[in-house]
Amino acid sequence: MKPIIGITMGDAAGVGPEIIVKALGHRSVYDLCRPVVIGDAKLLERAIRVTEEPLTVSAVKSVADSQFEFGTIECIDLDLLPEDLPFGQLSPQAGDAAFQYLKLAVDLAKKKEIHSICTAPLNKEALHKGGHLYPGHTEILAELTGTTDYSMMLSSPKLKVIHLTTHVGLIKAVQSITPERTYKVVKLAHDTLTRAGYTNPRIAVCGINPHAGENGLFGEGEEEEKLVPGIKQAAAEGINVSGPHPADTVFFRAVRGYFDLVVACYHDQGHVPIKVLGLEEGVNITVGLNGGVIRTSVDHGTAFDIAGKNIADERSMLAAIQSGADLAPKEVLN
Question: Which of 96, 101, 152, 159 is the most buried if burial means most Cβ atoms within 10 Å?
């Protein structure tokens, strides 16, 4: 059975409605999943006029009302915004609406009515002006699901990377890595891939220092102190994990098929190889959310400067939908 993907519209003053419409204009999307949009139907209709896609919109009250037929975009219509919402302008109303779309998506995911959440971008300033003081999607999702241990995973067609740390400075990142964090992230990665149908997923952990410390030649023993105990704990539980590996070769080996996923120690260590492989196909994934909720996202922002001009590129949205389908828990689909 194909997974049901709930696509949240994000900030409707940006390119979210356009990239959703363009993505759902690809018949291939319906070959791999059953998509339903959570947003405002009239703004999807406006996006269809902008993009000139040969599609229609059907406003539905629930997932169960959806037919999932190519050519008709089904939208759980919250009807929160005016049809003439200005393109490319900060709007507290649009910021609040983006939050409400996500909140409903989480509720549906908790009830297993959808199997993954795929998010169009929101604008953080608009979100704040709308009364929701979060750094972004991830923190909202963590609070709505009551989750404290979660991580960012980046995915491209050839490489998956999960992070021990993300948006902190390099010195603080190294300081904050602990054996407990290493173990938890390795286990998150293993559990996520296992639920997605991987058999005995192969996980490689990057070293912190050049050449993974090279037996104490580089660094102050950070690998032995911060990484190795967590790796050993995970391995003792039967998880197929190895490392620490030198970061300058492990991503190449993963792309060649030796590993299913790489654990990066800090932001740039993991982001750079993914983005070198292609910004258009990169997907941001939040894993470890309570209830098995999977969220995938486009790897770009609201692009206010091009909203409403029919020049937004839908490839990242297509990749996010693909990843949402790939990572949907297989046990709920049988």
Answer: 101
